[in-house]
Amino acid sequence: MEKAANRPQLSNRWFQLRGRRKRIFSPRSLIYFLLLLIPAFYTARSFRFPSVRENSFANQSGLVSYVYDGDTFRIKLRGGEKRVRLLGVDTAEVGDPHEEVDLWARLARRFSYFHLFQKSVSLSFEAEREDRYGRLLAMSGLIIKSCSTSF
Question: What pLDDT is recorded for position 19?
Fold first, then answer.
């Protein structure tokens, strides 16, 4: 009888291991864990990863309708016309007060006009999509339509 009296009460312990009950989580720690888990779940659920559907400009192609200068042109896309600034190309602006700079700017514009105007180009974008003037920032590539002939 004395052994049963000296035995501690194990009524609030949860799991039993090797004949002894051992508590893995206390009710208080389980409540704290759930209170931390709920906001983390809603935060992760509300975070949206970028996808192609959300990015309407992902690797699009269109027809160049106007060339502003050597590094800027207007393109007809499915959603309308957009101004595009070429990444990696830096040309002088047409109308510069210095004659030599204006000459190089006009040559750059002529080069872009010859290679881009009324041609189908594909655009690929980097992380930053637009500049402070609202132009799309993109790299451009000509779409060359090849014709296959068999002899």
Answer: 55
CATH number of the domain that 113 lies in? 2.40.50.90
Q: What is the pLDDT of residue 145?
A: 62
For the entire predicted model, the pTM comes to: 0.56
**Residues ≥6 apart with Cβ < 8 Å to 88:** 139
Is 123 a domain residue?
Answer: yes
Contact call for residues 51 and 57 (beta carbons, < 8 A): no
Does one domain contain both 113 and 72?
yes
Number of Cβ within 10 Å of residue 40's Cβ equals: 9
Tokens at residue 117, please? 């105007």
Segments in the chain below pLDDT 50: 51-55, 147-151
Greatest extent of the chain over all pairs of C-alpha atoms, in Å: 112
Same domain, 77 and 105: yes
pLDDT score of 125: 85
How many helical (H) and strand (E) elements, i.e. helices and strands, does the chain have? Answer: 3, 7
For 6, the token pair is 């000296």
Instruction: Detail the DSSP E strand segments found in 5-135.
Output: 15-17, 20-22, 61-69, 72-77, 80-86, 120-130
pLDDT on residue 60: 83
